[in-house]
Amino acid sequence: MLNTLSGRFLMLTVAFVMLAEVFIFVPSIARFREDFLMARLERAQIASLAVLASPDMIDEAVEAELLLNAGVYNVILRRDEMSQLVLSSPVPKEVRAVYDLRDASAFTLIRDAMECLLTKEEWVIRVIGTPLRGAGEQIEVTMNSGPLRTAMIEYGLNILVLSAVISGITASLLFFAVQRLLVGPIRGVVGAMQNYASAPEDARRIITPTSRVKELREAEEALYGMETELTSALRQKDRLAQVGGAVAKISHDLRNILTSAQLFADRIEGSDDPLVARVAPKMVNSIGRAVNLCESTLAFGKAEEPAPRLSQVALCELVDDVLDGERLAVRDGKVQLLADVPNGLTLRADVEQIHRVLSNLTRNARQAIEASGKEGSVTISAGEDAASWMITVTDTGPGLPPKARENLFTPFQGGVRKGGSGLGLAIAAELVRGHGGRLDLLQSDEAGTRFQITLPKGLDAI
């Protein structure tokens, strides 16, 4: 029960009511003590006035009875600026404390009450007060503190029982009120969330705001907006998945067709016809780009890239292999492909996946330089520190346009070249993340573009 909202609210209500009763009890018990002592002074005053009215009729037995009824040992009455011991009897103990009730402050009354309540030993105390109805200037009595403490304990127990009853009734009423006004609606919202979670594509399960409580209504409206957007997103995701599946199938068959066309184009390129010789290279390049696009689409269309198979990779050999493949595609010798990798540098990675990453980055850089019509270079360099390996691909091309930088690693949106799909960088970033690393764009301006691959040496991802 304590783990429920209503249960905790019930316990807090009881605790706060009892705490409030404590704050009420302290001044209340001080007031009770003051009234008790004032009553003793009043009874002692009445007894003393009886003695003064007929002194000859009061013998020792009557005097003892008057003191017993007043609950005091002796009475001193001050009248006409003279003090007189009106009633007296033997005092069993030494007077331990004197309490003056004339103009006593609230703090003094509370302090004296707590002292009396917490002291188990019975004291003989002297109490000083002002007589009622102008019967004198001052009255002073000596009495035992035991009856006073007993009366205070009884009064405190009565207050405790009353406080417990009030706390129980108040807590019960608040418990049922919270159950009806707060916990019930919250459970309704939770139930609506669970119902929606079982089939989020079903728009009929979206919550309908009905609460009349402002805060709960706001929560229901926020949940309604979130569920509506999520359902729309899921439907859009399903449509994109269907489109992606269709595109992947088409790309697969189209790639096979284009590969055959590429073989035919290679033979046509050797024709003696000047027109054919001039057009054939462009056709070959176009078919090559189409084949690459189909392969990229198929690669990205998979549910996920396979986990990397880590092994020790000689980076210098891997980079040379990537650059040799790209050199075959260099036109007119305007692009230089360079390597700056220390001999003997090895890293722990999936050789095939890192080859794909470097090929994508190098190909993009080469094509960007060729598209500019100027000469340039692409350099793959590498280094390491205690925590990671760093591989940098730098080119002297024209830099990335602003739109490409905004959606750099977003599929179909981060394309740099006209007609490009933007899948190369998206695939490269995904493969690097699979190694626990990071692919960053460090520079892209008129001086060129620089990407950096950072791979961790330990188990923690970067």
UniProtKB/TrEMBL annotation:
Keyword Nucleotidyltransferase appears in the UniProt entry: no
InterPro entries per record: 2C_sensor_his_kinase (IPR050980), HATPase_C_sf (IPR036890), HATPase_dom (IPR003594), His_kinase_dom (IPR005467), HisK_dim/P_dom (IPR003661), HisK_dim/P_sf (IPR036097), Sig_transdc_His_kin-like_C (IPR004358)
Cellular component GO terms held in the UniProt record: plasma membrane
Membrane topology listed for this record: Multi-pass membrane protein
Residue ranges of domain Histidine kinase in the record: 249-459
Transmembrane segments: 6-30, 155-178
SMART domains in alphabetical order: HATPase_c (SM00387), HisKA (SM00388)
Recorded superkingdom: Bacteria
Gene3D superfamilies with a match to the protein in the record: 1.10.287.130, Histidine kinase-like ATPase, C-terminal domain
EC id: 2.7.13.3
Subcellular location: Cell membrane
Catalytic activity reported: ATP + protein L-histidine = ADP + protein N-phospho-L-histidine
Any Pfam family matching the protein: HATPase_c
Alphabetically ordered keywords of this record: ATP-binding, Cell membrane, Kinase, Membrane, Nucleotide-binding, Phosphoprotein, Transferase, Transmembrane, Transmembrane helix
PANTHER family: SENSOR PROTEIN CREC, SENSOR PROTEIN RSTB
Name the record gives this protein: histidine kinase
Taxon lineage: Bacteria, Pseudomonadati, Pseudomonadota, Alphaproteobacteria, Rhodobacterales
